[in-house]
Amino acid sequence: MPCKARVAVIIGSERDREYGEKAVKLLQEHGIEVVFRVLSAHRNPKELDRFIEENDESIDVYIAMAGLAAHLPGYIASRTQKPVIGVPLPAGPLNGIDALLSIVQMPRGVPVATVGIGNAENAAHLALRILRLAGRCE
Length: 138
Hints:
138 residues; Rossmann fold; 5 helices; 5 strands
């Protein structure tokens, strides 16, 4: 059975594109439909809200990656019941540690799975495992 799944890969800015494209490539190699967007929880929250509202029903898993404060995964998780995987990216003086701490400190009821700093491929692998458990992929 091919994958009958749709994953949204959302990056916070164009400078994060190289990471996002790694996740997209791996997912597409497994036959997963990917929606790739550049949307910031800080710079364009209304556009991000609109994207989630218009696509949430058809999205199975979200992968969100951003540097610095990394509010993007938490913001998405607060607006959906779908799994959200956060990828903190190396940025700023602590090289991603602030981003990781931001994701780890999400409030109760707003879960975000987190992979290692900059590891977009592991986010894609985790999405695949979630989809397999849900019976959406082999």
